Amino acid sequence: HVQLVESGGASVQAGGSLRLSCAASGNIASSYCMGWFRQAPGKEREGVAAIYIGGSSIFYVDSVKGRFTISTDMSNYTVYLDMTGLKPEDTAMYYCAAHPYCSHVIDRWTYWGQGTQVTVS
């Protein structure tokens, strides 16, 4: 089993920046893919960015390209999402997830954190 704990969510003004962190523990392999997803009220959950723990193959949804950066720290199995130029439409609950491989199919992701709220006004 894998445990994921997110942190870093906050309320910020438009144009501001935040760093989200997701610490993974348990039976997770260095070959796993870790991703960030978000869900706004009344909307479906969407993938934001994903990265293999080893740092290869990074994916971003078009709406965050150039503003968000995903990275990993293999020493402690932590994945980060650096968000800049935040917009009100970025407001959502942000979730971290892990899976043996990166997938565009959200339902395939095996492990999920509890989420951290990001509010942009």
Provide a descriptive summary of the structure in words.
The protein is an all-beta fold. Helices cover 0% and strands 50% of the residues. The protein contains no helices and eleven strands. The chain has strands at 2-7, 11-12, 18-26, 33-39, 46-52, 59-60, 68-73, 78-83, 92-99, 111-112, 116-120. The strands form two sheets. Strands 2, 4, 5, 6, 9, 10 and 11 form a seven-stranded mixed β-sheet that branches. Strand 4 (33-39) and strand 5 (46-52) form a beta hairpin. It is globular and about 40 Å long. The model has no long low-confidence stretch (mean pLDDT 94).
Fold blueprint:
Layout: E1 2-7, E2 11-12, E3 18-26, E4 33-39, E5 46-52, E6 59-60, E7 68-73, E8 78-83, E9 92-99, E10 111-112, E11 116-120
